[in-house]
């Protein structure tokens, strides 16, 4: 007796007759209307009387809304796997995650050869299928920059670029009967898909046993493999027996008869579900989440009670781990990534994380330049699923911390609104909106935090609160130290089109170029905000300048931008009138780390001669190959220093530089640049020295933060990002 506890799925197995192509589409639509889950289609590319299965599935996906679709099964010898991987990912994206992939090793070899395919022995066909699965999985895995490498006997894919990533993890089901195919199913497939017509009842148990044995040898839980069956029966008792005694949980009716399909969905499927649920309850059968197999469990790290995790989680060994382990710049190796879906689950996740003997990090969008939203061996509370964007009446906006600013800009832009929020669309709301938020319209409209009017916060003890005035003051600039913000309330402002300008300069006279640019920006209209990147190209310093004029008055924009052209010899320039969302468009990228995470940051009142000489000396030292200066001032400095925890309201420039190692960039920065800085934008600095906290939070702001820390987080749970020690606690 075998019951793997899977939820029950019901579908149809349709014939793609080319003589009446609309008929099979209508049967698929009927499958959906009848309440069935899945429509599958035969695949015989050599059969002239049939529609091409892939084309048909694409058409059906466009004509349905919830129906999952799958070939049953795809003739692999006539489907090159690298191309198939891209086709499958594309269809999955277009159908919003509705594709499943049934694969066969091949049959009917004469017509396959006639179509230009290979002739393979049974053994060769199994080897080829395994290689194809490796190609598919590597092509879909975009969590590494390395090219696909499968150097097989039948398929050699060496260096192909990965992607696109499917909308979900496309399950691979194998049509298998013989021992070698069954063992391959256990090792690498997500489902076993035989046909009832080709098996006898006494065949099921030995086949399941082979799959289970192979799964266990591969370090998998046998329950990871769904048992599916193309059936030619609608008898409820027989289907119940197949589920409870033989482990099948997906039943696919092989019929093109509309009445049979409708009855299967409206009568048979509900009756089978009810009978199986009743018997499972009586037997105490474990259902639902399968858990991890031995291979995954073997990668678990010490200090974490994995089985007690209260919300959905990703751990080392899971397929999704590569997508959630790292930030934009830092490669992390966390022991567990918790993924709550609402504020209550955030509270549960935080309480659980406090009970574990490992570091804790909180992450919103994952961009985090400082790299502090990941760790090694610890727990991450990933807020990516709290990504709501709600625009109310007027200018009121509610944002989830896991939303990314590119999507926020798109939504606000559709309402004629905007919010200055960094310079990259994949930045998460939570990290930026608790640190400051220096964006392309800051000189006109101020920092992002200057527009936050309210927040919902999970405190260190797990309590869920609406921020009172003290807490709201603290999270606007030091939010990572006081709780997990699960919703921001902001007041946006009208924004239509803006002028976006790019310029490039030969910056061999680096100090002079920086001084000239700084002076012109400080004396420019507030509508103009400018970001300067100084990079080394073949040993020559080059300035890349990105500027936004926050308005659609092109004549005024030209007047504001023109003085920048004599900063240094011009190499390139352009300007265009664009909607603001186009500047911070969402990228949809996966953060994979790997870049340097040795970064120093500071704030400067002016780019005077001494400051510019220091920055030039830093670049000449060779310890930094990339320097960025963002203009602030203007509306940023209209806000009183004591209005928010971000107290830096006199500086006009935010500076940061990337180095090769923390030790070396510290030495060069401290010698050449630090004496000219007055403050720190904490999200850009990775210097671990505790004294940096005083650069980020000058007095009396720091003293007030320590008093509030003692009130809201007395145990200093939130200490991963420039830890503020509670008042009366030791500073060492």
UniProtKB/TrEMBL annotation:
Classification via Pfam families: Bac_luciferase (PF00296), BBE (PF08031), FAD_binding_4 (PF01565)
Domain FAD-binding PCMH-type residues, every copy: 330-495
Annotated SUPFAM superfamilies: Bacterial luciferase-like (SSF51679), FAD-binding/transporter-associated domain-like (SSF56176)
Family according to the record: Belongs to the oxygen-dependent FAD-linked oxidoreductase family.
InterPro entries associated with the record: BBE, FAD-bd_PCMH, FAD-bd_PCMH-like_sf, FAD-bd_PCMH_sub1, FAD-bd_PCMH_sub2, FAD-linked_Oxidoreductase, Luciferase-like_dom, Luciferase-like_sf
Entry keyword Protein transport: no
Cofactor: FAD
UniProt GO molecular function: FAD binding; oxidoreductase activity, acting on paired donors, with incorporation or reduction of molecular oxygen
Oxidoreductase found in the keyword field: yes
Protein name: LLM class flavin-dependent oxidoreductase
Keywords from the named record: FAD, Flavoprotein, Oxidoreductase
PROSITE patterns assigned to the protein according to its UniProt record, in alphabetical order: FAD_PCMH, OX2_COVAL_FAD
